[in-house]
Amino acid sequence: MLSNRKKKILCAVVDGYIDRAAPISSKEIQEQYLCECSSATIRNELSALESMGYLNQPHVSAGRIPTEKAFRFYVNELLCGATLTSREAELIDNYFQRKIGSLEDIIVAVTKIIAEITNYTAVVVKEDMSDTITAIKLLDLSNGKMLVVIVTDSRVLKDGMLDIPDDFTDKMIAQAERWLNKLFVGKHVADFLNFTYPYTLVNDEFAQFNSLFKKIIDVLKKQSLYNGMDVSTYGESKILQHSEYADVHTAQRFMAELENKDRIAEMFTYDGGESGSVTVKIGADDNAPEGCSVVSARVNLGDNVSGSIGVIGPVRMNYKRVLAVLDKISDIIIDLIDNKETT
Known about the structure:
3-stranded antiparallel sheet; globular
């Protein structure tokens, strides 16, 4: 548990490092953030924060820089309600004054304005789950594996592989397939993704399939979501404007990450969030690219269509501005979708 003074000093280091990308000294903290504290007191607190894993000191005579642990604490505990400047808010409002008709137009506009305002790479992931499930097939591959095939009115999903229990017979597979079809055929994929496994519906005849059904449903959720995603990005080169990516190899690694659309979709959507929720992932240990942060907000894009908007940028990200931008644009998306559905 950090004292209030430690929190203030940690916040000052993070804010200063975000602004200048350079180690922050005790003198800077005193002059700009905590004039009521002596330099000696601040130095002692900095040493304590360093021993706790929140700060690093590149050189003995240098100031401190925040670790990923510090940025996580900053986001979770220290980040106050962020607001846009009047100029930024006006720029966003003006951008959406022009007529935007289709959902695709909305997505293009959103990615462009997020990238321009934040100066990071913008991402929009659309999850179209309007398909209706028409059939579910379980195929025994004769190698101890079963292939789960989902047929909808517009596509076939067949990426779900399961281990077959040793005591599972062909008759039991057929029974399981009939039960799954009874449960899910005729439902939208969107309904299915929020579906809770109906243990109360399983009678004695199907009780032996409990664990298998649970596995199958998890596979169906994941594969349906995965196959219904569309990823749009904008401002890929903006990362090169940040000092962390001056090194060619680091920049190339980042660009390679952006080319992996499945990986991007996973980072922006597999968070269990509901519409309106915000997720911040910091560093590789948090399922973001190494040395990067991912900030995303869940949005509703229409009937049975949802998604996420956000940015990928350096860990030394201006989280306050990013969160304020996503909050503003999320509200605009709600208005645009409502207007589109009523026209």
